[in-house]
Structures
1.
Amino acid sequence: MIMENLKPLTEGQKKLYNALNDTRNSIVGIFGPSGTGKTLFSLAYSLDAIMSKKYDRLVLIKPVAKFDSQRTFSSLDLGDVYYSIVKDYLLDMVLLLKLDWSEIESLIVEKRIIIVDPETLHGRSFDRSIIFVDDAHLLSTEAAYEILMRIGNDSRFIIAGDPVLQGSEKSGISILRNVLLGESRAIVVDLGLKDIVRHGAKIGIKLLLEAKMRKREMSREEKRVASIIIENIPDIDLVTVLDLRRKKENYPIPLPQVPDFILVVKEGQAGKIIGKGGSKINKIEKLVGGSIRIIETGLNFKDYVKAFHPVGWIAEHIKGIDFRGPYLTVVLDKKNRGPFIGNKGAYIRFFENIVKELIGMRVKVE
């Protein structure tokens, strides 16, 4: 049994393992960033089910996209190259699972494993099948629903994708996730940073978020502050500067705890700006004419709360802060949700506004 040899390493992976093994779930939606095991667990279960003859065949659906543009290509564009690309992807997973590739090739020849282009599904139906859709964030909402309509009798549907960094709140993958949350025979498994088990994936996410902040176009005033920082601390790796003064002025509530400027610096470099006993940052604040807080690049989002949430102390009461669906989700006890959200949601809106400007994500509280 392939699944029996696959050990979940995180709480999220345990939920995924149990969701796949519970056949009451006719639809399993798996959402989270790269490196969390979405593909590995899904294919392990699917191949297990085919090889043990619980289902007649595995229908493997995977969009093929150009890496730097996410433009998708169909078999109509690429011909046999399309199927070769998907087969190579399957080979990679089979090797990770330590299976005999020749056995998998035999299943492909027998058409018990079939690779299907999502662009060529019209008129097809799949009975007694496991239908696995990977990289679903590359599909349009319409294409995802078209695939759902192909589910035949006694079949299971597994769909995996990344609404966190490859999608948005209004992308097809996020809309599909929300639809599945309301389906009685469907289960949604959300995976986050804490579920990443591939070291390179976590580094990649950190650098991707840093790149988003570096690409951000600074205002004239933010550029002025940046030039002062660099002039006084030439070896600082300054990622971006965020001017919060106008944001504070436009809010209907006083925000005395929020600084005038946020400086984002490379991980490990905050000390260069602070200086011994705060000597450097005091000087910088006088030069720029406003109060400053510093955050370092990285994946500790509690630092964001400490730096620019109107109630900075609330960070100490956060039980968890991680990706969930297309959101950065903050977990708090019921008694501490009020201070985080603020009167009529004012505090969370202010905090979310800055998070969206820095890394392009919305914020939810649970």
2.
Amino acid sequence: MRFHCILCTRDCVDIILESLESKAAWADFVYVYDTGSTDGTWEIVQEFAKKKDARIVPFKREEVLFREGVRAYVFNAFRDNMEDGDWIVKSDEDEFYHVSPREFVSNHLKAHETAVWTQLYDFRLTCEEAQRQSDPECVARERKIPLINRRRYYLPITYSEHRLCRYRKHMKWYPSDSFPTNAGFVARARIPVRHYPHRDVEQLKHRVRLRQALLKVLPAGTYPHWRCETWEDFLVPANLPELRFWPLAWRSLTGILVFDAFAKMVETRSAVGVASLCRADLRQNAPALCFQLHPGVIARASQGGVVLKHQLGLGG
């Protein structure tokens, strides 16, 4: 069982190295298709493949209009390298699997489940963070920090997208489609993916310029979520009610699946519920988790902050 990652990228010099390293940790092959980078992204991909990891396969760089079916082109170029039982994984450079596809397939699927959809967590740039980044040196300093530490505010996405499927030699993936036809039996479990479309001010400005240029030549109505008046339309206030804060203590799938229930308990001030959930599902990480989720979460969660502290073993 091998994992074949199809990675499409364009103008992501700020993140491509971290993305390649992340995907090389679980993939047997990462087929990279650059759809027209001009910022050095493609050169980094080539150097990484040549000097660091032969599992990275630079397919080609060519200026093309992005559409969902471009991955079918890559799939059909490399399908002779695939065998029945291998797994195909879709990914972009700004997506990071919080649980690796290899681990997810091995530990969280039933034998008959052969296609996997996502639970996406969309990390956003806040107005306050953007204001701090008015100094270009601030952006340069931040880019040296791993993304999981750099961008922490996110929105849980309520829709799901297909990402993995088990390969069959007679499988068809047509250029008009975003995923193979009859990809397989969809798994009940969803694989958690951290998505970082807005990483800093400079990257966001460039992303908007590029997408606005593409929208001028794409059919009307294409990608409505790309449309905006200015890049600032994509900023979010840190006090947005639905915005959440990613706690670094959560490294496991259990933590991800528990997250929404935990947040709801905090919002409804169920101190005992929060304590019970943390103790049962997150064990030794619970104290750190509580403090990292929101400063002052103990006080906010309680009619009984003392009860919560006691149940978490924090004293008081």
